[in-house]
Amino acid sequence: AQSVTQLGSHVSVSEGALVLLRCNYSSSVPPYLFWYVQYPNQGLQLLLKYTSAATLVKGINGFEAEFKKSETSFHLTKPSAHMSDAAEYFCAVSEGAGTYKYIFGTGTRLKVLA
Amino acid sequence: DTAVSQTPKYLVTQMGNDKSIKCEQNLGHDTMYWYKQDSKKFLKIMFSYNNKELIINETVPNRFSPKSPDKAHLNLHINSLELGDSAVYFCASSLGETQYFGPGTRLLVL
């Protein structure tokens, strides 16, 4: 069975500092992995995805994530936080192409301090 | 153009009532989903439809009944609403591995 664990339900960084949001997954088959962002009172928006191509994935708004199979991790990073990055971030996993079930992590709320 | 839209955006109702939430996507996707997000932001899949056929039903109480009249629409009907049904319900669609989410329907059961 698949699962996703996001370490840290709340993360605070200073504006301009590195953002690191952690995601570890469990999957019995090669997974597809996703990061979504949710701004207050809005739906989820895809930031980036890993679908078995390059292990370093670049997404929108300067975010990137690296798939590390040995660590079963897919951590999200951004070199320099901006105030507009404050939001809820969700990591998700699916069991590859043709599957329709996505398991979401419990989310990490990112706070950016001025 | 709104890719995935939901109506209503807010829904306040009494326990025991029956209500429906509608979802429409104009992306031409084959697969649509309903998710429930609770007060702690936990997002859980409820149903998934592919080409109007139900393919995932995640042990949701049978008070919840999805209906897909065509590939572009997936509605959610809830009978005998309970306090615990209060949540944000998200519709999503996908073609391939990427899901596109609607803005959510905030349901409050009093």
Please tell me about this protein's structure.
Chain A is mainly beta. Chain A is about 0% helix and about 55% strand. Chain A is built from no helices and eleven strands. Chain A has strands spanning about 5, 10-15, 20-25, 30-40, 45-50, 55-60, 65-70, 75-80, 85-95, 100-105, 110-114. In chain A, the strands form two sheets. In chain A, strands 2, 4, 5, 9, 10 and 11 form a six-stranded mixed sheet that branches. Chain B is mostly beta strands. Chain B has no helices and eleven strands. In chain B, the strands form two sheets. In chain B, strands 2, 4, 5, 6, 9, 10 and 11 form a seven-stranded mixed sheet that branches. In chain B, strand 9 and strand 10 form a beta hairpin. The model of chain B has no long low-confidence stretch (mean pLDDT about 90). Chains A and B meet through strand 4, strand 5, strand 9 and strand 10 of A and strand 5, strand 9 and strand 10 of B.
